[in-house]
Amino acid sequence: EDQVTQSPEALRLQEGESSSLNCSYTVSGLRGLFWYRQDPGKGPEFLFTLYSAGEEKEKERLKATLTKKESFLHITAPKPEDSATYLCAVQAEGVSGGSNYKLTFGKGTLLTVNP
Amino acid sequence: SAVISQKPSRDICQRGTSLTIQCQVDSQVTMMFWYRQQPGQSLTLIATANQGSEATYESGFVIDKFPISRPNLTFSTLTVSNMSPEDSSIYLCSVNRGDTIYFGEGSWLTVV
Questions:
Q1: Closest approach of chain B CAs to the CA of A42, in angstroms?
Q2: What is the C-alpha to C-alpha distance for residues B68 and B77, in angstroms, rounded to an integer?
Q3: What is the rounded average pLDDT of the residues A83-91?
Q4: In sequence order, what are the beta bridge partners of B101?
Q5: A101 and B108: CB-CB below 8 Å?
Q6: Contacts of A104 in chain B (CB under 8 A)
């Protein structure tokens, strides 16, 4: 069974204080690892997809990296508007039909950035 | 990206009643997905809806409780039947564009 564990559950940073969020996963074969941002009262907003170990992607102050067992979301010099819940999800390969697109999510990391 | 609209955005429902959630996508898609996000829990896939065929349900979810319709390539509904307080959740519609999965804003249901 695919499993995703995110840590820490909550993280409080001062503006400008860089840090990383962790996503550990267990999957039979990884098709893709997804990162989303979710603001209160909203649906998840797509950030990145990573497909193979060693891959990195960047968007503004965010950089996602991937190894064979985990992914990190690095936040450089965060601002208060980066406050949100960050969700990690995996998609397994080798599943037929609609479940081929199934995402298995972690519980998320609630990030708070204080001014 | 994809523009996904859900109705209702929020509702308070009485125990034992049923509620239908609508999902409209800005362009045609083959598959639409319904997820549930219970308080403090991960998003969990309920079912995959293909146009013109029966929805495929994940383990732990059944058609009698969560009937789904998919009348065309831009629209789907999810009904939450005979609701109990345990059904209080966010219900999310999603679609794929290529390999990327996009989500709607969610329908926040509270069962009292």
A1: 5
A2: 6
A3: 97
A4: B96
A5: no
A6: 42
